[in-house]
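Now for one record.
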Amino acid sequence: MTNLFSPFDLAGLTLPNRVVMAPMSRVRSNPEGLATASMATYFSQRASAGLLITDGIQPSRQGQANPSSAGLHSPAQVKAWKPVTGAIHANGGRVFAQLMHGGRISHPLTSGQQPVGPSAIAARNTMVFTPQGPLAAPVPRALSTAEAAAEALVYGEAARNAVEAGFDGVELHGANGYLISQFLSTSANQRTDAYGGSITARIRFAVEAVAGTVDAVGGHRVGIRLSPGAGIWDAVEEDVPALYTALLKELAPLGLAYVHLVASTDDETMQSLRRAWPGTLIVNPGAGTATARLDAERWLARGADLVSFGRAFIANPDLVERLRTGLPLTTADQETFYQGGDRGYLTYPAYAY
């Protein structure tokens, strides 16, 4: 009988269990966007997960959303990631790099450039992270039609760098109000060209970004994370079931490793999207939900192939074993989520018997 601890074949990559470590922003790189020794320790401590997905890595300088986030767009950054992937593999793990282009959720103080987006519309009532603290989200520069097509290709360029750096694959961040999600949104995307307006046009950027990445590294190395109807960072969507059904239909022929859905919409829509997607499905129960084994296995019973855990992995590097044996989970200190340094990053031990 399939359960959370059954092995799984992920496009030729053998996972020993169906527990996935979800991507979580920990912003622990150095100012040059280089991965660090602490990051190697952090991820390798959690290598018992069936699959690790990194926090968001900018695919280009233009795409940097947060200060102290790592990149995959320079030779130095590729070199810095190799000890991280090497440590994960040495501990028996498997890891995908999440490629996250912030789009309008950025600031010139962070990236050194004016943020770009589908339209020149700032996220309303939104503060973004900068080296000087939270500041109001700026008005982005709207990408031209040609620029939008070119920007979709930066994910593939970063994916090539990820494979060179030793990653097993990449996950495009199409969720939570970042660039791909902005194109899907009717509030952030008010274009009238081939990238805006109808559902067919609004999914175009996502499809081109995924297709370009598949061309670069192969579908078996590519996943995408989506958050239907979440509305995060003021990226409001309309016609959510129709929008995401259309998107999954276009992605299906590309032979992806997986689609990673946040349970950010109602159960009926989630079930309809499961039926619409013929490939491997990862479900993330979302913030504020229980992360116990029984809850995860309920998602497996609903049709998920794998279940991702976010905050539970921060304070429980041995989360797989704790779930397997029913051990209590440690609660993470939210004050150290993003502060930098090793406290609250490397200081959570495995369970002491």
Notes: The longest strand covers residues 95-99. The mean pLDDT is 96. The radius of gyration is 19 Å. Residues 75-90 form the longest helix (16 residues).
